[in-house]
Amino acid sequence: MVALMQGSLSSTFPIENQNNLMTMRTLKNHLDRTKSLPFVKCIADFHLLLFLAMSNSLGSDVLALAACVSTETAVPEGYHLLIESMANTS
């Protein structure tokens, strides 16, 4: 018997290896769709975190974001503002 596990990550951000071109517009669309959620829930998506890690703006700072997601704690305001500003450059 297989037990289903329910975690805190979502899977709504496009998958990078599915011939999808990820842009800041993709990030903006994702944030717009999830704006009713706490910000930590908005970024609680593996593919979104991977996208942010590959961006030049955040790089290794994604580890701090992943820690927030893992512990379900608030994202520091500076990261929140940076991600929002990245999305608004589209």
From TrEMBL:
Family annotation (InterPro entries)? Npl4
GO MF terms listed in the record are:
ubiquitin binding; ubiquitin protein ligase binding
Which cellular component appears as one GO term in the record? nucleus
The record's Gene Ontology biological-process terms are: ubiquitin-dependent protein catabolic process
Q: What is this protein called?
A: Uncharacterized protein
